[in-house]
TrEMBL record:
<feature type="domain" description="N-acetyltransferase">
    <location>
        <begin position="7"/>
        <end position="157"/>
    </location>
</feature>
<dbReference type="GO" id="GO:0016747">
    <property type="term" value="F:acyltransferase activity, transferring groups other than amino-acyl groups"/>
</dbReference>
<dbReference type="Pfam" id="PF13302">
    <property type="entry name" value="Acetyltransf_3"/>
</dbReference>
<dbReference type="InterPro" id="IPR000182">
    <property type="entry name" value="GNAT_dom"/>
</dbReference>
<dbReference type="InterPro" id="IPR016181">
    <property type="entry name" value="Acyl_CoA_acyltransferase"/>
</dbReference>
<protein>
    <submittedName>
        <fullName>GNAT domain</fullName>
    </submittedName>
</protein>
Amino acid sequence: MDQEHEITLRKLTVDDVDDFMVWATDPKVAHFGSWEPYASVEDAIAYMENVVVPHPWFRAICLNNSPIGAISVTSSSGADKCRGEMGYVLASAYWGKGIVTKAVKIAAKMVFEEREEMERVEALVDVENGGSHRVLEKAGFVREGVFEEIFCAERKN
Ligand SMILES: CC(C)(COP(=O)(O)OP(=O)(O)OC[C@H]1O[C@@H](n2cnc3c(N)ncnc32)[C@H](O)[C@@H]1OP(=O)(O)O)[C@@H](O)C(=O)NCCC(=O)NCCS
């Protein structure tokens, strides 16, 4: 299947919730993420209303205008506003067809065009997420390093 010309990005809206549920409920898609698979449409709608819709750069990855995944670039603020962190997910039925590589290329181009202040788009990927590493390599991202260990302190109260 030649999908090279069929992948587009557009805003994801609450009306897309049925498509969103396809990947958001899939444990394979959530496996490397910091989220649990969604169990209810109500929770998905709340996420879409509270996070997706107000997000400055959150797009549906569409095949023939139907969402099959999502990609976002979250900007830092203040002195770090020149940096954006990219994240993406794709419904597992479409894995391995070059779709996210295409989406990453389109998204990076759009963000650099739309955001004059943006100098870097970064992605943090689990060391075991080989598919995501390969996507970024194919999209022209440069591997800068590996976090051996991450220390953090969390609020106690
Ligand atoms: C990772 C993910 C985004 C890849 O999307 P995709 O559209 O299937 O990616 P592409 O088809 O563009 O490219 C995948 C590449 O990774 C390779 N690949 C897949 N699994 C791999 C693995 N375990 N180890 C190494 N390479 C792997 C594929 O062979 C392909 O490379 P190739 O074109 O050289 O053959 C998709 O699997 C996904 O949504 N996963 C769940 C969410 C996720 O992990 N998001 C990223 C968080 S950082």
